[in-house]
Design a protein that fits this description.
Elements lengths: L2 E5 L6 H5 L10 E5 L10 H13 L2 E4 L7 H7 L5 E4 L4 H11 L1 H10 L3 E5 L1 H5 L31 E3 L8 H10 L7 E3 L4 E6 L2 E6 L3
Parallel strand pairs: 1-5, 2-3, 2-4, 4-5, 6-7
Antiparallel strand pairs: 1-8, 8-9
């Protein structure tokens, strides 16, 4: 069964993720992928997610996929239970995922039943396309990217940070520009997560 937990700000809703598990977090190893934040000086949002995972008791294995080969990543990720892809620049993240073979590894792991957790860019990556977030992220950070196709772990387009005043004007423009595929777009606020089990989708909030 395909299992995804897609968020805008993972640390705000990870308590809800723990409720989905049938074992303690201390029994599980998370492959934590911070790559999308490589292009930012301030990586505090990545630290917030990592610290929350640690606080909840998960074992964390940091894996930056930049300049890695598929063989190296396969070896590093062979014993992990959960893939966590942190936020940052979605275009840079996709470029590095394709260049390293991470995209292929993730698809196999998810198909085998491993959980995929996305935070912001990590969530967008899992969808059909990352193109709509070009107003939020800078595509020029990925000079070698030839396609905006996502990993297609879910047959939807993920749009994080909806309702955040900082991005409101850009969000309105994105929703206008992509109104022809609005039925494909999953809008997530900073306090929400989309829980996906195969094709079933449930939106939950940290307030639930």
């Amino acid at each position: 069964m395909k299992k995804l937990f897609l968020t805008s700000v993972a640390c705000k809703v990870l308590d809800k993720f723990v409720e989905l598990l049938d074992c303690p977090p201390s029994d599980l190893t998370v492959a934590f992928i911070p790559t999308a934040a490589d292009v930012y000086e301030n990586k505090s949002f990545v630290d917030d997610d990592r610290n929350k995972l640690s606080e909840l008791g998960f074992k964390i294995l940091d894996i930056n996929i930049t300049n890695k080969t598929e063989e190296i990543l396969q070896e590093q990720m062979k014993d992990i239970d959960i893939i966590f892809v942190a936020g940052g620049n979605t275009f840079y993240l996709l470029e590095k995922a394709l260049a390293s073979g991470f995209d292929k590894i993730v698809k196999k792991l998810v198909e085998s039943g491993k959980y995929y957790i996305g935070s912001s860019a990590g969530s967008v990556l899992a969808g059909l396309t990352i193109e709509p977030v070009k107003l939020l992220d800078d595509p020029s950070k990925a000079q070698n990217l030839k396609s905006f196709d996502g990993l297609k772990l879910i047959d939807k387009i993920i749009l994080p940070h909806c309702g955040n005043e900082k991005y409101q004007d850009k969000m309105n423009q994105i929703l206008k520009d992509y109104s022809d595929v609005k039925d494909k777009i999953i809008k997530l606020t900073d306090n929400q997560a989309a829980i996906i089990n195969d094709e079933a989708i449930k939106i939950i909030s940290s307030d639930d």
